[in-house]
């Protein structure tokens, strides 16, 4: 691994998220700081490639196949010739994997699965069970990655609350990026919801969508409360700080989403206004909890 490749990984991480860069720099296990930069940069690169407006479906499929096969070849110990700095990052991460710790394997496999799902869903709506799987898979990847890179000797007990902070973060991420996602063909409201409320998948300004946002924001807030309680019970200050820092970025964004929702008026007042205008009610049933993984 060349110094220039590592420098690029650090730069890519910092450019992608200064918040993540600082968490890695100060809170990741010292001997894994460089690998954490490589891991973040690798999936940042993958995400950018797959989200490119110029990438066709076949090109996205080819990229995902290439990266999956490349990962498998590295794991088998076979000679591999990286074709990009990103593949150098992946090769170095896997070759330095800590024996006996399942976190890295789970993180890499689940992140690739999330990338594959995102590529496959582009241009189509998704069902509620797909959304739940999506959130659960990503949340598992995040927590398994955290357990590998931060406090790897510390047990992260199995619990229904283990994934909830990451689930809350994913909900906020999808709410934050809704307009950008729609513009490139990612629709984050489930098909059942769209059908029940006669919404088009790209309608992110209707009363029904605002109510969806309100409910998802409330679910995210609940996930953060329970997820941070789990993090607070972990036996390392450094691990707790990393978990809290991860949450803080998304909680800050959630605060802004909630303030924006309040500016649209209280639900009762909005409902009265819709009745006065002859618009059908958009009251929705309570949301199902997404992201719970066995």
Features:
294 residues; mainly alpha; globular; disordered C terminus
Give an overview of the whole structure:
- This protein has 294 residues and is an all-alpha fold.
- The protein has two domains: 96 residues, no CATH class; 170 residues, no CATH class.
- The chain contains 13 helices and no strands.
- The C terminus is likely disordered.
Task: Compile the SSE list and pairings.
Layout lengths: L2 H14 L1 H10 L5 H19 L5 H19 L9 H11 L7 H19 L6 H22 L14 H13 L1 H6 L7 H6 L10 H26 L4 H27 L3 H10 L18
Radius of gyration: 20 Å
**First-residue to last-residue Cα separation:** 37 Å
Secondary structure class reads: mainly alpha
- Tell me the major beta sheet: none
Average pLDDT: 90
Helix share, percent: 55-70%
Summarize the structure.
The chain has two domains: 1-96, no CATH class; 125-294, no CATH class.
